[in-house]
Amino acid sequence: MASINIRCIPDNSYAIIGVVNNKRARFEIETKKNEENAEATKRNPINLVLVLDRSGSMESNNKLEFAKKAVISVLDLLHDDDVVHLVAYDDSVWNVFENARASTRQVLYSVVNGIKTGGSTFLSGGIEAGAKLFEKYVHPGYSKRMFVLSDGLANVGLQTKDEIMKAVTKYNENGIIIDSFGVGEDFDEAMMKGIAEAGRGQFFFLESAEVIVTLITKALQSVFDVCGTKAQLIIRGRNDAIVTKIWGHENIALGANLGDLHADNLRAILCDFTASATVPDGTEVEVLDYQLKYNRPDDVEGEPLIVSGQLSLTFVNDESFIQEIHPKVKILHTVQVAGEMDDRIAQLIDSNKRDDAIALITEQINLLRQVEHLDDERDMFISTTKRFITRPQITWIIFQFKKRYNSTTSSTKLTSSYFHHVSSLPFVYKTLSQSFDETAAKYPDHECYIFKSEQKRYTFKLLKDEVDSLAASLMELGFEKGDRFAVWLPNTSENVAMSFAASKLGLIKVNINPAYVGRELEYCINKVGCKGLLLSPTVKIIESLSIFRRLVPELDQHSISRELSSKLLPTLKHVILTGKQSSISGLHSYNNLIEQGKKLSHTELNERQASINPDSPVAIYYTSGTTGQPKAATLTNFGILNLVHAQWEHLGPYFTRLCVPIPFFHIFAEVVGVLNTAVAKCQIIVPAILPDTVSTMKAIHEEKCTALIGAPIIFRDILTHPDKKKYNLSSLVYSALGASPMHCDFLRQLENEIPVTRAAQGYGMTENAALLTSGMWAGDEDPKRRLGSLGRCMQRLEIKVADREGNAVPIGQQGEIWARGYPIMIGYYGDPEKTKEALTSSGWLRTGDQATMDEDGYLYFVGRQKEMIIRGGINIYPIEIENTIIEHPSVAEAQVFSIPDERHGEEVCAWIKLKPDASSCQIEDIKKFLADKLAFFKIPKYIRFVDKFIMTPTGKVQKFKLSESMVNELKEAKK
After folding, report:
1. CATH for 46-208, among 2.40.50.100, 3.40.630.40, 1.10.3720.10, 3.40.50.410?
2. What is the pLDDT of residues 666-720, one digit of tens each?
3. How far apart are CA 333 and CA 339, in angstroms?
4. Per-residue CA distances from 59 to 68, 398, 604, 651 (Å)
5. Where are the beta strands (DSSP E) in 778-930?
6. At a CB cut-off of 8 Å and minimum separation 6, what does 928 contact?
7. Architecture of domain 432-740 in CATH?
8. pTM of the model
């Protein structure tokens, strides 16, 4: 058995020894310089074809799985402007995926993971198919590269080895560089090396590469002596290529790899920076030059120490172990550094620099999280933390981190797409109002709500007093537990007060869109049988009271001394109007009810509140109606409150001053925004009664908001608003996006251009109380997941990606998102059949959305099941086409949907919003642009340029209405 001996020479006495269970391999780095002027050439984007052998011989020794991991490594290191194609070949030569750019590359991960062995291999056919892709997809200025991953053992096809080499040479003469990756211990070395030589590329041996990367990483650890805080690593490679990496010491201990060192260069895949050399005893070795600059823990601000030397890789005959830094030493050092931040945090707090303090506290928590998994003795970690972090202002960090430590860390990688977010965070068995009252008692004078357009500012005490008075008056009017109470209001203080008053009395608050008019309002009230209604006289240009009077003409003859009797709204008994007193006799005045409630005894109210079961329903939210008539999702006190608790434990440091511009009738606004005051000391800033871009920017500027939540349209409007520069938005440390999945490039744009320190999207539905997953679980150390995924599910929830039978699919395979846990609705009110369709007998919610899951439980959106287009029997997901269309420089947004078609069943259509300066763009320009990026059947047959899409009030596009409009337009055109 051959081994590799790695030594640090000459400045380090450690000898690091490891074993390679196969042949010797050599790995080179290709970072070329311009020979003429010695200036480093600008990196050209890559047009890359991956040829993956899936023949029967690849099944032995898990070779195919190893090769697939290599393909995933390649995908991870590609730049956004690179293009990649995948050919997994057998005797029929199957082109799996063509022309994947950054926007569609995520789908390729699931395709790779789903590839299995089978059939004999025509190696020549696979390479030929790859070469033809370069002819089909011509990208000027791109480097043409092909990677062939194979053991080279299967049938080579109709050509001999010599003929294959001649063909590869010909392809190389046409500008294609071909690298070969020999897979497994038994690969055909002559075949695989011959392909690389003929293609003027590199030869790699995958299994050895992984071991060498691990050993070099361990060797670099030893150079750090015991513990350094920060280190600068400089590695000099072939052709004098130099790579510099600033590393925190913990990153090396956690297993950095050489891909991390040189992620900017695709050709560093599974490579090192070694060069051949001979040591004095005549042994041939591979040598890695390095230089490290670092500080010791007792002198973190002093002059850095410099260690220079080489790592020598050579084969020896014995076996030994790899020395590692002891986890307890690592924990002690990290906690010391976190403790040193304590004084700075205290100074910032004393100086009233809250934003800076929050940022440093967040950094402190993240630092501690980086070592939590190294500790097998949890008591040691917590006691060590307490030893160094002692100031009263931030002792909550220990509590926060202990909860995170016990709940979020798992070294176990998933093999099937099921994730349960285990957590020690306890459930709270209370109602929303009980929890709010407790928070109000702790912080009575803290300002909790600011309604900018109403010019109202509420402390906890002021709001609690208003809630109690409202609840007492509603009791006096005869409202009983379980009665439904409709709120037809915009974002006003009365809306918030009613949320807590309903919980206090055991009522079910029914949230109705203030933009709804007669028939829609009638439907929402009658669907669930509302007994009460709270409305305002007008909402902008909508004359709400006039609309309601047309529905209920009996109102003018009615007296508030008795219950209302309406022909169209038979269950409605009491109507309350905000604002000034109305002359209409049948209306209660909200202000009068508050004044009356102050005079009533609250003894019965307190008894009533104490009798409310936390498991009882507290709110009904109508689904947004993107596919038809809204359904009444019914949620409980327990579910909503515990989700808000979980959210605060997860995101609390960012939510100190939270800006909520989205409509309150949408559950995202209530759960992620408004109801945080039920669990914590914070401020909720409401810019205006309806979404308004200038009001939102002004509120952030004046109130120094730390977080902003909303649908993508809110953020787009800020980015494109001509007055954006008039407002200082720099206080924002976090932006949470929901309502519809967003491309990672858009989130990066938010961070750069608003700017905001962190942006992430979450995923959820009305049926699961809005927040099922959060991208912020990935944290700053993992921006790819934070920006590119839907995140991981919230604490104590279960989530799986399931097949049609409800079974969790393998990791990376596509399926439907299912969720189970405490915030899931108890059902659609009055709709047992619809409830049965959505909820299984075991409590799983079928979301209807397609996704994949990675090995750590992060979700990646694929498309909505109901939006999937089936054209001629082929499944097409609109999101892939949308992401490709928006790559066109003239396109701002795109929506893809289907219309019925006699021949194909369905046909692909697209509505496109152009950028302001793109008026010259034509439909044929779009189709031509897509021609070399999408298969012909995915290119929309019908394209229409529009100024806006048909959307729900919460910012979701109603594709079924786009389809209806397109069908009508085509019918008119035929006349």
Report:
1. 3.40.50.410
2. 899 999 999 999 999 999 999 999 989 999 999 999 999 999 999 888 998 899 8
3. 10
4. 12, 49, 73, 45
5. 792-793, 798-802, 815-820, 827-828, 845-853, 859-864, 869-871, 874-876, 891-901, 905-914
6. none
7. 3-Layer(aba) Sandwich (3.40)
8. 0.56
